[in-house]
Amino acid sequence: MAGIDKDDISLPKATVQKLISEVLDDDLSFNKDAREIIIKSGIEFLMILSSMSSEMAEQDSKKTIAPEHVLTALKELEYDSFIPFLEQILTEFKGTQKIRERRDSKFKNSGLTEEELLRQQEELFRKSRSKLQNNAIPENIKTEQQ
């Protein structure tokens, strides 16, 4: 990587530890040196995959690395077994993006300012709390209050 020293790059230790903990049996533990090796290996793998993905994009005369380039790079690196899982994750991600885009466009197409929408939301919350509080009072107490 241009201008960046490999030793300056790291992965978040807490995240790596959480990933390791999810994989390990409860009766096993990982010491700090082993975690460091996992981190260094992960960084090396990401750098190799990034470089190969970049080559795939260049071959397609693209300046942006697309998911297809990463998947092709994984095939080239003989990590074919990862691909079905990653394609599933990509499909799920695209689905959540479409939902988010629809939600965003609904907001933009409403014609209301963010402040107006917040006021409407607060009013709906107030009505909901009021309705909840009225329904929480037992019937015999309601009739006594009236």
From TrEMBL:
Q: Does the keyword Nucleus apply?
A: yes
Q: Which InterPro entries match?
A: CBFA_NFYB_domain, Histone-fold, Ncb2
Q: What's one Pfam family here?
A: CBFD_NFYB_HMF
A GO molecular function held by the record: transcription corepressor activity
GO CC annotation: negative cofactor 2 complex
Alphabetically sorted, this entry's keywords are: Nucleus
List the GO biological process terms: cellular response to heat; negative regulation of RNA polymerase II transcription preinitiation complex assembly; negative regulation of transcription by RNA polymerase III; positive regulation of transcription by RNA polymerase II; RNA polymerase II preinitiation complex assembly
Major localisation: nucleus
Q: Protein name, please?
A: Transcription factor CBF/NF-Y/archaeal histone domain-containing protein
What is the organism of origin for this protein? Kazachstania africana (strain ATCC 22294 / BCRC 22015 / CBS 2517 / CECT 1963 / NBRC 1671 / NRRL Y-8276) (Yeast)
